[in-house]
Design brief:
The chain has 464 residues and is an alpha/beta fold. Strands 1, 2, 3, 4, 5, 6 and 17 form a seven-stranded mixed β-sheet that branches. A five-stranded parallel β-sheet has the order 8-15-9-10-11.
């Protein structure tokens, strides 16, 4: 049996659903194909349950400063870890149910339960049936990376796809891979009284390339649990669990959390049957402004393309892919300013261009240490740093990196400013309330004024 459709979307995760929102504006002749469990990665195993988990851990950890605030009894607080996991799962289910609203409303003509494989660029087979599509959107997402040499320890290894299904937490764990997910979950586990050891082959955490920010982040988080950086982890099965060896350091743990990133979910697609050109990682080459793969009628969006594996980027890419899939020619859309946030404590965030991408002779760095920031001191979280990269010639803000309290909010302010092309002077004309964390940004911007190569008089006040 063969069926003609205008668009076939493979994958009902975030990018696929955003693509669908655009496709449905132009046509009702489409299919959304997914053979897995419905509900986005973000809602089911990623952004949302992890933030619930982190919130519980942070709330419990707050007891550590009760004494200095004159609050007694913090040492008497008890932790029911199975109840914690039940709470995480309850809220996770709420978030998943919200994402299922779209697919639940689709009939069997539009939502196809099965795994797709390409026959050619425009023909897809699902459950033995063929679909001839005017355009195809690949949005199959990713799966966790687990090294093949770790297979003998499979029963002792947890991925983030499995962590939030557990009824209880292990007594000890090694978190291997300290990108955003590993750092967030590692710290949360430690704050929930799990004995945690963090390991990463790199010397930096959360993809930080600013050595000053990285140093503070490593020192701050390293006070809560050991971070073994710069060496590869080796695993060995022992009677007591798993021996994790990293150089001359070793520890025996009950479980290992594999947090080594995710790989594209191409396993069933048979991309070899298409005309697509693949890169060294097996990802189709595509235009990030149109999401089009070469000159084909195939578009790719979301984590699967390994470009910007973040929810808000998946949303943008899905919309672009869906928009172009129902038009005769691909339209280019401007990418949003880069923004990445790690929800550890202190928050780690990067915005716009990073230090390694810039010519350091052409920039000035606006820096603010959080020690004297009043609002941070009140909260009890004044260990932090903000560094903003500014073009010396005209004062334009190019990028930033930070490890600080409420960095998630500062990062958004900076991302919005960079995307609008604002200068330091433009930003200082904006109001800053007192006392707020944003005063740290204000202080950093004032501090960099003397380093700018501005010949004419420019002031941070708006003339009328």
């Amino acid at each position: 049996m063969s069926r003609e459709v205008d668009v076939a979307i493979i994958g009902a995760g975030s990018a696929g659903l955003f693509a669908l929102s655009q496709v449905r504006r132009k046509t009702d002749n489409y299919v959304l194909i997914d053979g897995g469990e419905l509900g986005t990665t973000c809602a089911r195993v990623g952004c949302m349950p992890s933030k619930v988990f982190i919130q519980v851990a942070d709330d419990y950890h707050r007891r550590s400063i009760f004494d200095r605030e004159g609050i007694e009894g913090g040492d008497e607080l008890a932790l029911d870890r199975p109840a914690v996991m039940e709470h995480v799962q309850d809220l996770r289910d709420v978030f998943v149910d919200k994402t299922l609203g779209v697919t639940d409303a689709l009939d069997e003509e539009h939502l196809i339960d099965g795994y797709a494989r390409f026959i050619d660029d425009q023909t897809i087979e699902v459950n033995g049936e063929h679909y001839r599509a005017g355009a195809v959107v690949i949005a199959t997402g990713t799966v966790p990376v687990v090294p093949s040499q770790w297979q003998p320890f499979a029963d002792d290894i947890i991925t983030t796809d499995e962590l939030f299904e557990r009824e209880d937490l292990p007594a000890s764990i090694a978190v291997i891979g300290l990108g955003s997910i590993g750092l967030e979950i590692g710290q949360a586990l430690s704050r929930l009284n799990v004995d945690v050891t963090g390991v990463d082959l790199l010397e930096n955490v959360a993809k930080l390339d600013d050595p000053v920010v990285n140093k503070l982040a490593v020192e701050a988080i390293g006070k809560e649990f050991p971070l073994w950086l710069g060496q590869e982890a080796e695993l060995e099965k022992t009677d007591g669990g798993v021996l994790v060896r990293c150089g001359d350091k070793e520890v025996v743990v009950e479980k290992v959390l594999a947090s080594l990133g995710r790989r594209p979910n191409f396993d069933r697609l048979d991309l070899a049957n298409t005309s697509l050109q693949l890169d060294q990682s097996g990802v189709p080459q595509f235009n990030p402004e149109t999401m089009q793969c070469g000159d084909s009628a195939i578009y790719i969006a979301g984590d699967v393309n390994m470009d910007r594996p973040l929810l808000h980027e998946a949303g943008h890419e899905g919309r672009v892919a869906g928009y172009n899939a129902v038009r005769n020619s691909a339209v280019a859309f401007r990418r949003k300013t880069g923004l990445a946030i790690t929800f550890c404590d202190p928050n780690i965030a990067t915005v716009g261009a990073q230090l390694g991408e810039l010519n350091e002779d052409e920039i000035a760095v606006a820096e603010m240490q959080f020690g004297p920031v009043g609002r941070a001191l009140i909260i009890g979280k004044n260990r932090g740093i903000l560094r903003v990269y500014v073009n010396r010639a005209d004062g334009r803000v190019l990028g930033a990196a930070m490890a600080c309290v409420k960095g998630e909010h500062l990062a958004h302010l900076l991302a919005w400013s960079i995307q609008q092309g604002l200068t330091v002077f433009d930003m200082l004309k904006m109001p800053f309330y007192h006392p707020v964390i944003e005063e740290a940004l204000q202080g950093a911007l004032y501090g960099v004024l003397s380093e700018l190569d501005i010949s004419e008089e420019v002031v941070e006040l708006e003339k009328i």
